[in-house]
Amino acid sequence: MKTETKNKLNQLTRLTALIALYTIVGATGQAQADLKEVNGCAQSTTKINEIATTVDHDWADFEKFIEDETGLNIKGCMQNRFQDNGKIDCESSSGGTCSGANGWASYLSHTAHFCPTFVNRVRALTGDSNKKACYLALMTHEFGHTCWRGHGTVEDIDDAAFKYAKKTLPGVTIDMIDCGMD
Ligand SMILES: [Zn+2]
Fold first, then answer.
1. Which tens digits make up the pLDDT trace of 72-123?
2. Are residues 62 and 110 in the same domain?
3. What's the CA-to-centroid distance between 145 and ligand 1, angstroms?
4. For residue 66, what is the domain's CATH number?
């Protein structure tokens, strides 16, 4: 083989290896993207991000638990919310869609809206794990709505998410009713 051709082949091999490396790093980066945004949640932002990140990184475990508890298939859409495109907006007004509600979400959006009544109630609870269990339950409920699941199904999912928090986080001492949810 001509030296010139050999060099070109070597270059090509190195380039291919480099592309493969970037692909692996890129894929890993995306898998650990967590929530996309948390807006308007003030001092609750860190805890909301932390519990979402925990679920993201333990996704297989979370998915199996929820699916075993509910008999539903949550993968795909729900996984994307926790690992890539999910947003949390803490609303500043208790009126409108937040009137008498803990939160809300629109079909086809990526956003779970948390209402002031819920956020204030959870902030008043003692213990980070208790707060995180509530945030996870409502987040899962509202993300469920964005994934086309209506009421009757998302309640099963939020019950299971709260149970998951109780099983996996140290020091969850409350029940879901203490989050203002049932
Ligand atoms: Zn709902």
1. 998 789 999 999 999 999 999 999 999 999 999 999 899 999 999 999 999 9
2. yes
3. 7
4. 3.40.390
* Domain count along the chain: 2
User: Are 50 and 89 found together in one domain?
Assistant: yes
Q: Identify the domain containing residue 8 by its residue range.
A: 1-31
Distance 24 CA to ligand 1 centre (A): 37
pTM above 0.85, yes or no: no
> Over the chain, what HEC string results?
CCHHHHHHHHHHHHHHHHHHHHHHHHHHHHHCCCCCEEECCHHHHHHHHHHHHHHHHCHHHHHHHHHHHHCCCCCCHHHHHHHHHCEEEECCCCCHHHCCCCEECCCCCCEEEECHHHHHHHHCCCCHHHHHHHHHHHHHHHHHHHCCCCCCCHHHHHHHHHHHHHHHCCCCCCCHHHHCCC
Is the predicted pLDDT of residue 17 greater than 60, yes or no? no
58 C-alpha to ligand 1 centroid (Å): 25
Q: How far is the CA of 10 from the centre of ligand 1 (A)?
A: 58
Give 144 Cα–ligand 1 centroid separation in angstroms.
Answer: 8
Let me know whether 24 and 108 are in one domain: no
Instruction: Find the 93 Cα to ligand 1 centroid distance in Å.
Output: 18
